[in-house]
Amino acid sequence: MVDEPFYAYYLARSGADHPGRNEVLASQPQHVQGVLHGLDAIDDREHLFLKGMAHHCEGIPAQELAEMTSVFYIRDPKRIIASFAEVIPNPSLRDIGLRMSMELLESVQRAGGKCLVLDSDDLLADPEGRAHFAL
C-alpha cells in the first residue's frame, strides 16, 4: 500500500498550505512522471493499493489513471467534513474533493478505465466481502 503518492504533486501544483507541506515537498516527487516511475519500481505484486484523494490527481492525464483499476471510496459528506476539520481548519469544498471525485470518475471511465464505487457503510458492514469485490 502506498499512502497518497500524488500528495506532493498536488501541493506543488496547487500551492495549498497544508500541515507538513515543506516536509512532504522535500521528501516526495512533485511531478506525475516521477510518482509513476516510483510506483513502477515497487510494483512487484499482482495488486498494489494506492490510497489517495481525487483532487491530488487533478491535471494527471486520465489515460495514465485508466491503466489502473480505480476504487472510489465514498462516505457521508458530513463525516468527510468532520474528518478534515480535525486537520485543516474550515475545510473548503476543494479540500474535501467531492466535485473532483465525480469529475475524476467520469474522466477515467471516458478513457476506458475500470472504476468501482465502494460506500464506506457497506465496507464497514462487510469488510471481507467488499474487499474481495474490489479485487
Rg, nearest Å: 15 Å
User: Considering DSSP H and I runs of 4 or more, what fraction of the residues is helical?
Assistant: 40-55%
Principal-axes geometry comes out as globular
Judged by helices, strands and strand pairing, the structural class is mainly alpha
User: Distance N terminus to C terminus?
Assistant: 14 Å
Give the SSE string.
EHHHEHEHHHEHH
Please report the number of helical segments: 9
Percent of residues in β-strands: 5-15%
Average of pLDDT: 88
Number of domains: 1
> Could you give a short account of the major beta sheet?
2 strands, parallel
Describe the strand arrangement of the main beta sheet, using strand numbers. Answer: 1-2
| Total strands | 4
Low-confidence stretches: none
Explained architecture:
- The strands form 2 sheets. The chain has a two-stranded parallel ribbon. Strands 3-4 form a two-stranded parallel sheet.
- It has one domain.
- 11% of the residues are buried.
- It has 9 helices and 4 strands.
- With 135 residues, the chain is mainly α.
- α1 (7-14) packs across α2.
- The longest helix has 13 residues, at 98-110.
- It starts with a strand and ends with a helix.
Condensed summary:
By secondary structure, the protein is mostly helical. It has nine helices and four strands.
